[in-house]
Amino acid sequence: MSDHEYDVLDELYFLVSFQELKTSVGMEEDELLSVLTKLQKKDWIKCFEEPDVELESKDVDLEINFRKYHYLATKTGLKAHTSTT
User: Fold this and answer.
1) Can you tell me whether residue 41 is helix, strand or coil?
2) Angle, vertex CA 6, rays to CA 2 and CA 7, nearest 5
3) Backbone angles phi, psi at 73, to 5 degrees
4) How far apart are alpha carbons 40 and 43 in whole angstroms?
5) Which residues lie closer than 8 Å to 10 by C-beta, 6 or more apart?
6) What are the pLDDT digits (tens) for 21-73?
């Protein structure tokens, strides 16, 4: 797990909007998008269209809609995050 992946997962114990996440981790959009893409491919995060509307992985389009989503670490992502501490 990269330092950036760790930092992003650290913020996703609770549901967070893209804008809140970007502010918290202090990354540029393109860098954050790259990390979110890697985490999603590993099944370490879930994406939500709205705070109460979870998207199926197949319906997530990070390239186009990443700014609109809310993010949350999955159980697998949380385990990976805590196993590196």
Assistant:
1) helix
2) 115
3) -70, 145
4) 5
5) 81
6) 999 999 999 999 999 999 999 999 999 999 899 999 889 998 899 999 999 99
* Cα gap 82→62, rounded to integer Å: 25
Residue ranges per structural domain of the chain:
3-83
For residues 25 and 32, is the Cβ–Cβ distance under 8 A? yes
Extended strands (E) in 1-85: 16-17, 45-50, 53-54, 70-73
> What is 3-83's CATH topology?
Arc Repressor Mutant, subunit A (1.10.10)
In sign, the C-alpha dihedral spanning 8, 33, 47, 39 is negative
What's the pTM?
A: 0.90
CA distance 69 to 62: 8
